[in-house]
Amino acid sequence: MTGFIGRNLRPKGFSTWKALLGVALPIVLLWPGIGVCAAVSADSEACVGCHTTVTPGIVADWAKSGHARVSPQEAAGKGTLERMVSFEKPPEKLGGNSVGCAECHTLNPDAHKDTVEHQGYRIHAVVSPSDCAVCHPAERNQYNENLMAHAYANLTANSLYEDLKNSINGVQTMEKGKLEAHSSDLATDQDSCLACHGTVVEVTGSVSRSTDMGDMEFPVLTGWPNQGVGRINPDGSKGSCASCHPRHQFSIETARKPSTCSQCHKGPDVPAYKVYSVSKHGNLYASLEKDWNFKGVPWVVGKDFTAPTCAACHMSLVVGPEGQVISERSHGAADRLPWRIFGLIYAHAHPKSPETSIIRNAEGLPLPTSLTGKPATDFLIDAAEQGKRKARMEKTCLSCHSQSWVDGHFARFENTLQVTDAMTLTATKLVMTAWEKGLAKGPALKDSVFNEAIEKKWVEQWLFYANSTRFSAAMSGADYGVFANGRWSMSKNVRDMQDWLDSRPGGARK
Amino acid sequence: MTGFIGRNLRPKGFSTWKALLGVALPIVLLWPGIGVCAAVSADSEACVGCHTTVTPGIVADWAKSGHARVSPQEAAGKGTLERMVSFEKPPEKLGGNSVGCAECHTLNPDAHKDTVEHQGYRIHAVVSPSDCAVCHPAERNQYNENLMAHAYANLTANSLYEDLKNSINGVQTMEKGKLEAHSSDLATDQDSCLACHGTVVEVTGSVSRSTDMGDMEFPVLTGWPNQGVGRINPDGSKGSCASCHPRHQFSIETARKPSTCSQCHKGPDVPAYKVYSVSKHGNLYASLEKDWNFKGVPWVVGKDFTAPTCAACHMSLVVGPEGQVISERSHGAADRLPWRIFGLIYAHAHPKSPETSIIRNAEGLPLPTSLTGKPATDFLIDAAEQGKRKARMEKTCLSCHSQSWVDGHFARFENTLQVTDAMTLTATKLVMTAWEKGLAKGPALKDSVFNEAIEKKWVEQWLFYANSTRFSAAMSGADYGVFANGRWSMSKNVRDMQDWLDSRPGGARK
Amino acid sequence: MTGFIGRNLRPKGFSTWKALLGVALPIVLLWPGIGVCAAVSADSEACVGCHTTVTPGIVADWAKSGHARVSPQEAAGKGTLERMVSFEKPPEKLGGNSVGCAECHTLNPDAHKDTVEHQGYRIHAVVSPSDCAVCHPAERNQYNENLMAHAYANLTANSLYEDLKNSINGVQTMEKGKLEAHSSDLATDQDSCLACHGTVVEVTGSVSRSTDMGDMEFPVLTGWPNQGVGRINPDGSKGSCASCHPRHQFSIETARKPSTCSQCHKGPDVPAYKVYSVSKHGNLYASLEKDWNFKGVPWVVGKDFTAPTCAACHMSLVVGPEGQVISERSHGAADRLPWRIFGLIYAHAHPKSPETSIIRNAEGLPLPTSLTGKPATDFLIDAAEQGKRKARMEKTCLSCHSQSWVDGHFARFENTLQVTDAMTLTATKLVMTAWEKGLAKGPALKDSVFNEAIEKKWVEQWLFYANSTRFSAAMSGADYGVFANGRWSMSKNVRDMQDWLDSRPGGARK
């Protein structure tokens, strides 16, 4: 029936998308360089019939995707290393059809609170990791153990981070000659922190709009649009696969390229992309990547790419020229990482659980270390687990580097963690001095530790400068550890903090 | 006669450029993938004869251009959407010839004050929008209504901006233990602000140089070189098409790519390029653009490109796969923009006239709002016009996004305008407090509002941080609205300003 | 014998690398588009036999290199301009073989203190410029005269720079409420300054590791890994060709692309890459480089590239379309530079010797100018030599620009040198005032001039802001001379310094 409606609604755009895709003829076609091109289901044909005109960009993009060209049935037939699906067997319902609009946007309609009646179908706008898991369950399961999947609550359920967020996003007004701080509004949070951490997408009602196809009802969604890594979806799932595999081409090439990671990892708080760009790896990428193969699965080191991208070191399945597996694919971004080097006051072993708001330090605060650097050991992975993760990372390094090279690199990196922690401790002692001397209001007075001028200098010491220096050490991006928010800034900042104390009545030194 | 001179002067380079271009044989040639290649006029042949040796880079670049390959006559024969010319009919004088050196550099010799006798020709170095308008009159006319065309006077005829410019560019010396400010010198202005805003290019004399072809006379030009958007040309016209269509390939590919805009739109005052780079659009561009078609006219959404560049949203003719026009080409950069979000103290409706130095606010200052944010309504477009411009912008968005997506995006953007304006007002009240308490010299004392330490913090609040946050909201480039000169910086800056006031004798709070 | 061992050790990876390379058949093969592919020596065959499995990335990368494809014998037969080797005649020992692993890693075993016995060979890990000089002696000799080759000692043998380094990299602790500075540790220096300047690589012992091939001995190296431009190698040579020609593809394409230079030239102290990126040259590169030819030797202006990269202006052999030489290849980066514009307090004529720690200014300090800007003339090139270098640079400019264009450009540049020097002098006078009034401890008290808050502001004036402004003038990257660490920052910084002085008891102005 739905197919019938689709055909009835078929506008003049209908033939165009077929031309784009080259399919939907009675027999499947050979797609040069790709192989047999899958057939489109009748339901998706109905969608495309209108949407070629309504949202031509989406349809054309999808037509270029693997989803349009390779059916799950065909994908299932590939070898273990070549497969991009992880189901036991392909969804029967699909037969030999490709993955089109309807295949994703009509899944699990009852679980999806954003489901609406739309031209005879029950569709939802917000495709979620649970939808993707029909064909990619291993990836969804790995991702659920990734800190990123929990990025929303890791921020909002942590009272200290909530305070930091308010101190940044909240409007400050002048009242009787004094600054007065206000909590941040939701739209601001969605436009800033939650853009990456993920919003809560909920249905709050519906709206009627007149369209070329007549009046239609659409759900009203809070927190929309959003493609943050920890998005809370209307079906209760967490995350958005589109964070790194953006709609509707879902190209593995995009996920493998470092620009994709830059969306959330370029700021001064987490300058991973900047550091990579000036590293030797990043230099090689910039100069030679046009000749690399970003579509090959599995990904062959040396042959397909000369230098790693973010994905190659942190997530991708990488093999050698004879198909020997060097690194397993993982959607857990910390699986190859012994240390967490950003976002917190000191470097520390990675948390055991991806839900970090449960952590309590010696002071009872939701932090992985105390204010002076003592780790909250019970909540963090131990040395043995750190060793395992480091060994996983080194496997990729050793494809191109000797053990001495790798050992030398990591010895320096771990030395830099100590040095940046020491410089952070100094800044912490300076802000504590301000609190003790009553030059700023600190935790003893139940005041925010993020809202005063001297406190903000302290935050920059760890959130910007120590982080930047650690990233630079991790990926050999020298100046981000020196003059570009690195050691220069750390050493200057403690002098500025000391200078500030000195110039206040009752300051540290006169 | 000129052709004859050209032939007489023909050096050994002559055959080289023909090889580059593959033309100038008795019959026109087929250019693979381009079509028939146009013939070169005898005059241009003369130019190229020498300049292949004298300036080989220019000649080779031109040989790759559309100007070398498609004659205006041929261009005139194309369909409305495919045409890259906007004349009623092609210049008769050209016949079927291509657009070569002589066709542009000898135009309107009497209007051009930089015209000189050169090897028997009356040529000028500074090709201007009036020259380009022989074939591209619509583009010139649109551009004349663009703020950019007036960027020179918008800066220099605005007394406040002139003061800001002097406070930045002027040398400050130490005189008897005190800083003394000087006005900026012209070469410095040309090397800084006017690089983008445009210089005044005037002939001040002539100079003789000995060349391989003997002694020659050349005009001496002020403000040269320059490719600023508001350049004042020797023929009195404004702007430089080469700002975005750089010489001598004039590739539409260059104008459509975001790097071109970065020349003037990457700094902390207007970080459009940076924000785009970390947006999902920018991510997709970086990872997939090598497979996009940047030369197709008209430009087909989805098929030719997956995600928009600056040009796609702000200027380009964009069509759907069936040729339906989604957005009309416009060289007025604000035609799809309801709000002006940078360069001024508060966000405001776009000015009615592209000449902004005529604007007066409630205080009589040449600003679109008062110091506390009240808009100079008489000089700004009204809500109806804002609605029209927003609708134009949304047309492009809707090629790939639903109405809910677009509505959600713009609701957040407009909320962010309010929040950044509120945070700017707070900074303004802080600097006003400094003026009132005599801690800084303000307008009441007829002193510059840009020259003292506390005033410069105030400037950074709006010129850097509020702007960056607004751009981030406009294009979803999250961290430029948070830690990369965004809300973090706004919230820290007002605390630093308060701290400064507090630590001064007679400051706001003791 | 070595070949025999190689064959004995040959694992299953053996056939793979042959497939990658397409060689080592009894007869040499035709490589499409490259020509005859050279044979691999028996020694290198032995290396590759194991290393295809052990370090597959290296082997695959080398297989794509010119070294793998063109034998020195064949290279010797090319024309003067086409040659990428500079020996008198090719090394006889190689016969017609390609340059494989053994050809470089077994050279000069006695000179290499890092030589070890490895599977019957005497190999060394650290291939040095002296090794490369077997085929590329002219390049090594030019490079030895380059400041970069001496970057290690230029930093570490200069007492002032050593002090600056310690003030940045040394941990500062809080002792009794006061900051206490410590000297930096070696691992930190290697992770920061020396990453670019180069480390000292020395053998300190050996280590045994169990491998798939049994237990093996490896040397323990200090300062490893490192690819800094002034690396001190175990054979006593200086530099690392891999800084710009990274292993093991050694692609000229990489050295010609600007990203490669960004590794060391992107930070706020030397923002050359950033400035280039927003220049018209950089814009054209970003939009059109995919169509340029980065492999052609010689490099033809206009035909192979439309706009110059770093290499084109500073180092490359550039010719016109008829093969006329426009610029000679040089590995001396200052050969086309009259002025040194970064890293020091004032702009100055380039040093005569690439060893700069020998320089003494009027005050006896190892600086090319006095603190107030007087040049240490005896150690700097004179006006005539400056003129020669400028003329060399202009030759490239004139390929695409007229003499008026070039003259106008350089006049502005030299004006900007004067203005930035004047603004630096003002900052110097401010810090001197602080020293005089006892508000900071300066040279008169034998204290560091880099360690106090006000001194660090002074450093930023020249090391960041004046430098950035000069680079912007040199390459027309406007905002790096205005709001992005340019004139805005210079003018603000002196006001902040004045403000600091004013607010101190006994400051300059009350």
Overview of the molecule:
- The structure is a homotrimer of 510-residue chains.
- By secondary structure, chain A is mainly alpha-helical.
- Chain A has helices spanning 2-9, 14-21, 42-54, 56-63, 66-69, 72-76, 101-105, 129-132, 137-144, 151-156, 159-169, 186-191, 193-197, 252-256, 258-262, 272-278, 280-288, 310-314, 383-397, 403-436, 453-475, 487-503; strands at 30-31, 35-36, 116-118, 121-123, 172-175, 178-181, 203-211, 214-221, 299-300, 318-319, 325-327, 339-340, 348-349.
- The longest helix of chain A has 34 residues, at 403-436.
- At the A-B interface, helix 2, helix 4, helix 11, strand 5 and helix 12 of A face helix 17, helix 20 and helix 22 of B.
